[in-house]
Amino acid sequence: MSSMQKIKTYTASTKMCDLISENYNMLLLIFRFEIPLGVGEKTIREICEENDVDEKTFLFIVNFLLYREGKDASDLHKSLSMPLIIRYLQNSHNYFLDYRLPTIRLNLFSAIEGCPPDVTYAIRKFYDEYVEEVNKHMQYENKYVFPYVEKLLEGNKDSKYSIEIFRKRHDQVELKMMELKNILIKYYPAQSGYKLNTVLHDIFSCEEELKDHNDVEDHIFTPAIIELEKEFM
């Protein structure tokens, strides 16, 4: 983005349809907040109120994802709805594990059918191992991190765990997707067609989506929980 280009910060009075029309990737965000389409001419505030979504948290994540505003801000655990952020992250996990990655797998395997068997086997194995890695990463959060934070919010601190444990093991799972993309671009032996190009486009998009997901965890969720934990010291 040019330094001369004005950044448009979205507010509660912005029409939800304008947010989506001007930033189509916000379609994924409203889905993760469980906001349906059919928003009419209503403002972000009106839509959030109708869907029991904390307006401030919604707008904070919108402007963070668009412009990285508020990165690592202080007192997030007081100003944002942590239960809503957990719900957002859980829905994001469901999107990747139940829809996005299985769909890419189906289309990828179809696109490489004409490859030599050893190449087909190698690509399939690489992709399935990658998905298993993502699944372990996200299931760990679902099973350990989110319940830990929910207990914190109730006023109970597990002395055997801290968000620092999660932060240290929070590997960047999108990096493996980058490896797959580069393998296909550099070494795919057959003539490329629409199928493979479409899959590559999906892989590029998914890589960006995973980065956004991890950025929310690393720069909003984790800093907020670190601040929350300090209240138990």
Report on the structure:
With 233 residues, this protein is mostly helical. Helices cover 70% and strands 0% of the residues. The protein contains ten helices and no strands. Helix 9 (174-187) packs antiparallel against helix 10 (194-230). 23% of the residues are buried.
Question: What is the total tally of β strands?
Answer: 0
Secondary-structure-derived class: mainly alpha
Order of helices and strands: HHHHHHHHHH
Basic shape:
globular
The pLDDT mean sits at 90
Number of self-contained structural domains:
2
Range of strand content? under 5%
Low-confidence stretches: 1-5
Largest sheet: none
Number of helices: 10
Approximate helicity band: 55-70%
- Rg for CA atoms: 20 Å
Termini separation comes to 42 Å
Short description:
With 233 residues, this protein is an all-alpha fold. The chain has helices at residues 16-22, 26-32, 44-50, 55-67, 76-79, 82-111, 117-153, 163-169, 174-187, 194-230.
Overview features:
Hemerythrin-like, disordered N terminus, Cation-binding protein, mainly alpha, 70% helix, 233 residues
List the helices and strands and how they pair.
Layout: H1 16-22, H2 26-32, H3 44-50, H4 55-67, H5 76-79, H6 82-111, H7 117-153, H8 163-169, H9 174-187, H10 194-230
Helix pairs in contact: 6-7, 6-10, 9-10
